[in-house]
Amino acid sequence: MGAYLIRRLLLIIPTLWAIITLNFFIVQIAPGGPVEQALANIQFGQSSALPGGSDAAVGNRVALNSSPGDNQYRGSRGLDPEVVAEITKRYGFDKPLHERYFNLLWNYIRFDFGDSLFRSASVVQLIKESLPVSASLGLWSTLIIYLVSIPLGIKKAVRNGSAFDIWSSALIIIGYAIPAFLFAIMLIVLFAGGSYFDWFPLRGLTSPQFDALPWYAQIGDYFWHIALPVLATVISGFATLTMLTKNAFLDEIRKQYVVTARAKGLDENKVLYRHVFRNAMLLVIAGFPAAFISMFFTGSLLIEVMFSLNGLGLLGYEATIQRDYPVMFGTLYIFTLIGLLLNILSDMTYTLVDPRIDFEGR
């Protein structure tokens, strides 16, 4: 198992390299890069949005090129080439493509993600500020979904075809059909001061006076803030895992070894949880990395926007819209690394559930 684990860890390196390389060359040909974004800001008089200490100087130089009485910068008719060259150099696009590529690889080997192009902060600082929010949503949502779906799927398999199986299937399918953002809107309207009750806050994970609260009040304040976002995230996540668990158990229950165990007079709970559970849970465990990453990033993006939560999903989305390449690649690198490590963790969990699985032998 140790040799297999080492091989999997070593495979992370070429995988990260391939993903970063592919995305680097894709964004080079995509229109509307950071230089174009900066020039557009100057054209509309928003030079303060540019990073660095010489924003005012750039703005003044553009303003000097405008005609008296003209309300728009001359950039609307074509910027001074010196201004364009200065902005291009500031963002590092004055260097050849291959030099920028190898600089990116060398920096990422050292986990040096650089600074944001449009925010006065480093990429590492932005990720550190956003990571707790996404981690909270992802971990609690995934935990709740697994704690509810696995027992529910087992009970549905045991009582297959009963009234409980039918109405529970109807409920989880209805929940699956409701988009997360639509359910979030309903929660806001009902419980966050929209039109009816003002029971839950609508912004952030903690209150402004959080640091002054005692530890037990801090725990309550945290769960008070995260209750609605987590509920909105999990509503559509029960169906897939519940039906997967049910079908896996039904498939195992019909096998000969279960019939033999029952014929020997073993207790039904021992048959289910000592014999069937190990085999049926393999499929469920295999889906854990994808479920967690989905909750961690894509599943929580709209929720972060609607509840004003500054998480990694919102950070990556805004960076993509603004063409903030350092933040884009930094978040991509972190998400890819987390996903690869979770896949390895999933393989390790396979052997804990069923010791007969030997990755080393394969």
TrEMBL record:
GO BP annotations, alphabetical order: microcin transport; transmembrane transport
Record-stated family: Belongs to the binding-protein-dependent transport system permease family. OppBC subfamily.
Protein name per Swiss-Prot or TrEMBL: Inner membrane ABC transporter permease protein YejB
Gene3D superfamilies the UniProt entry points to: MetI-like (1.10.3720.10)
GO cellular component term of the entry, any: plasma membrane
Main location: membrane
Superkingdom in the source lineage: Bacteria
Transmembrane parts of this sequence: 9-30, 137-154, 166-192, 222-245, 280-307, 327-346
Record's subcellular location: Cell inner membrane; Cell membrane
Domain ABC transmembrane type-1 residues, every copy: 131-346
Function: Probably part of a binding-protein-dependent transport system. Probably responsible for the translocation of the substrate across the membrane.
InterPro entries per the UniProt record, alphabetical: MetI-like, MetI-like_sf
Pfam family, one: BPD_transp_1
Membrane-topology annotation of the record: Multi-pass membrane protein
Keyword terms, alphabetized: Cell inner membrane, Cell membrane, Membrane, Transmembrane, Transmembrane helix, Transport
